[in-house]
Every structure is written in C-alpha cells, then in structure tokens.
Prior knowledge:
By secondary structure, the protein is an alpha/beta fold. Helix content is 46%, strand content 14%. Its EC number is 3.1.1.23.
Amino acid sequence: MDLVVVKTIIRIVLDILSTSFITKYDNLPSIIFRFMMWCKRLNRHVTMEHIDREGYRFSYFSRGKPGSQRSILMLHGFSVNKDVWLDTLKHFPQDLHVVCVDMPGHGNTTRFLQESYTAAAQAKRIHQFVEWTGLNKNPFHLVGMSMGGMVAGLYAADYPSEVCALSLLCPAGLRYPTESEFFMRLKELMFSKDPSDSTLVSVNEKEGEKLLQLCLYDPSFVKTQLLKGYLDDQRPHKMFFVNCFLDISSAQSRYNLHDNMRRIQAPTQIIWGRHDKVFDPSGTDILATAIPNSQVHLLEKCGHFIALERPRKSAHLLLEFHNSFCDNTRNEKAA
Length: 335
Ligand SMILES: *[C@@H]1O[C@H](CO)[C@@H](O)[C@H](O)[C@H]1NC(C)=O
C-alpha cells in the first residue's frame, strides 16, 4: 500500500480513538498508548535500534545520517522514555542526524537494580553509549530534559571535547531555596506504601492525577492520559524507579549540576517553562550566571513537560541554536 494511504488511515484511526474512544474511558489503556506510540514512530520515520556490549543493552532510535551538520543526542527525563521526543522530531528536518536513547534503566535499556543511578553514574553510562555507537567521532549537540538535563550538563562538564553545543531543558540538579510542592508530594506517594506494591502512582487515582497535573500548564485530558500511559508502562518496575529516584536525589547527586556547572565550556541554551511547578524557572538565572556562553528562553504557557506542551516552539529554538553552533560547513569556511 502507498505510504500516504497508510498514513491517512493511521491518522483517521487516531482521530477516532482520541475523539470518541479515549474520552469515553477514564484510563487510556496501555494498549492504546502503545499503539499511538507505534504510529508516531512510523510517522516520524525513525529507525528503532539497540546496541549490546558487555552484557548491557542500550535501546534507541535515530533518524538521518551524520553529514554536513553535527549529530544531536537527546536525553529524556525520569520515568518516561525516548518516545517523549517524537513530537519534537516532527519539527526537525528529516536529514538531520538525531539519536534518542532510553536512559539507563528506562524504556528498553538494561535495568539493573543494584547499579547506581546518580547523575554521575548515568553520565558515565551515556558516555559508554556514545563510544559504542561512535557518535563522538565528531563533537555533537547534546540535549537533555529534566533528569536528562542534569546528566547532559554533567556530561558536557566531564567530556568537553565531545560536546559542541548543549541544550538544557528545565534540568534537575540545581540548588533551590525551597523544595517544590511536586517533590514533596511525589515522595509521599512513592514511600507511603510497601515498595513491592506495583503501583507507581497512588491507589488513589485522584491524587495521582493531581500530581501529573502539576507537571503541565494545561492539563488537558489527552496530555494527562499520555503521561499516565508512560507511567502505566512502568508499573511492573516500581522497585527500579524508587531506587533511581533515591539515587538521583541522594546527597551526592542531588545538586550535581549546580556543583559542576562552572566547568561547562560548550555554548549553552537554557529553555524553561514559565509555569514549571516541578523545578522553578529561577533555575535559568542560576545557570546563566555560571555558564559564560549561554542564552535563556522562557516559554509562555508551558509547565515542566516542555516536549509535550510546546514541542513546536522548543524544536524551533533547538534548531536555531543548532544551526548557529553546529553547522560543519560554516565552521570550515570560518577556519
Ligand atoms: C520495548 O520493546 C518492545 C518489544 O520489542 C516494544 O514493543 C516497545 O515499544 C519498546 N519500548 C520502548 C520504549 O522502546
């Protein structure tokens, strides 16, 4: 069948699902969530890949080939997976080489319970991935959101020669004067029950939903259900998420970006939702003061989940930044 026909059919099916079926049910069942992601991957023409070395697997997808432009590596946040970037990819040119990897323990990347998931340990793991795939043959543009932003910042500090540009989207790991409401409630939810209980979000659906709504500026039904879909996918791995959360919020990891941001040399772009209730947007000032070559973008009508709430705007900002710092041809001409 013609690809255009296939796409049209998929779009119609999605429309029917999202307008009639989904709104009738309280829960977006896991199977529909998976189907939607499968369709999105198909629509974005990404290639699903994995690499196995030393008994460890990294799962990732990519699009385009390394060429005149630098590659982009994208790191997602806590408790989601590489699929959160699919809406961003919609606004990138098809030939731009983009790699989205499942973070350690997330998605289909190996999940070892006994391994450390501090920011530093994760940055080391990501460096393994970069070496194994040869992504660092040339310096690349590193993008990270939330937990992935903290890891990306540390990576840029630890491996300066590999990163030609850095984009931090509402990264974790900074010192705020007060703990956000979100974190206090997340902690309560995660530790209020027996950790072997497989529900990541509270039994009390309302509480869980309220927590998800704190992540969004506009907690529309579809967006809230999407976030729930990611969480539902991970219910069986609650023990891992508790461990991971404890590691990234441990004393040695919690402010790791803050304590290392002065070592970041790459030109840096800082993007934050003005209405972020998970990490306060005042983080922009903390970073901009410490990183000499940096620029700040505050997004209006945007909460914590930038990739979900403002995919087009954030993609355009990423691309603009990429084009000014990562164009090989331009660099050669300048040399
Ligand atoms: C993980 O692998 C399964 C089986 O191949 C696949 O259906 C699923 O989409 C993958 N999930 C992610 C996040 O890559």
